[in-house]
Amino acid sequence: MVLVSALVSALLLSPLVFLLLAGAGAWLLAVKRRRAGLVLAAAGVLLPVLLSVGPVCDLFLRPLERGYPPFPPDAPAVDAVVVLGGGVIAGAPDEGGASRLSNESQARLAYGLFLHKRTSAPLVVSGGRVWRSSSADPEATVAVRFLVRLGVPQSLVTAEERSRNTWENAREVARILGQRGMARVALVTSAYHMPRAMLAFSKAGVACVPAPTDYKSSGGSLTVGDVLPSFEALATSFRALREYLGLLQYLLKAD
After folding, report:
1. Is 90 in the same domain as 128?
2. What is the pLDDT of residues 91-130, one digit of tens each?
3. How do residues 174-200 score in pLDDT, each as one tens digit?
4. CA-CA distances (angstroms) from residue 74 to 77, 119, 202, 211, 222?
5. Is the dihedral of CA 194, 111, 106, 109 positive or negative?
6. I want to staple 170 with a disulfide (CB 3.0 to 4.6 A). Which of 91, 126, 204, 209 is the partner?
7. What is the CATH number of the domain that holds 113?
8. Number of domains in the chain
C-alpha cells in the first residue's frame, strides 16, 4: 500500500501531468472541441511556468512553514531529539558506492545536532528505504555515519531504519520511545514538512515540541531573480503540493 501511495503521489505531482494536459488539449483541438482544447493546452503550458515563479511558490509554502513556530528558548525538557530523514542519494561506483545524504537531510541533521547539544537529549534519526529494492543504504544508517564523523558518540544516536514515509516514521519512533520510557521529544524536520509530521506523530501518540528548520520561502523579500521561472522553484512548489496531498491523506487515516 505504501508503494502504491508513493507511485500515485509521484504521478499526480510530476511534470507528466502538464504533458497530459497539453496532449489532451491538442487532441480536443484536433476533434474540433476548440474551447476545451484551448483551456487544457493553455493549462499544460502555463501552470508549470506559474509554479516555477518565486511568488507563486511562496504562496503554497508560507501556510505550511508558518504552521508551527521555531523551537522556543524556554521549551519544556525533552527526552530525545527526533530527526526525520529528507532523502539519500545512492553513491556512484567511482565514489566507493557509499550512499550520501541529500542537502535537505543534512540541514535537518545539522539542526538536530544543534538541539542535541543544547538540550543534552539523545538523538533518534528516522528513515529507511522507500523502495525495498533500492541499493541505497537506509537513510538512518547514513545519518548515523554522518553524525559519528561529526564527533557524536554512537551510543547517543538511535537509528530507526524501518520506516518508508512520515506516517511510518511516527509509528516506528513511537515504538522505540515506548520501549525506552520516553515521553516528549523535539521533532526536527523541514518547516514545510512540519504540519504533516506533527499530524502523524500526534496520531501515533507522541508528545512533540516542533523544531522546524530549513525554511524555503523568501520571507517576503523578493529579488529580480525570484520572479523569473526556475527549476528550483518548480521543484519546491511540487514539494509544497505534495505536503497538502499528504495532509489530506493523513487527516483521513484512522489512528
Report:
1. yes
2. 654 445 677 899 999 999 999 999 999 999 999 999 998 7
3. 999 999 999 999 999 999 999 999 999
4. 9, 11, 22, 13, 32
5. negative
6. 204
7. 3.40.50.620
8. 2
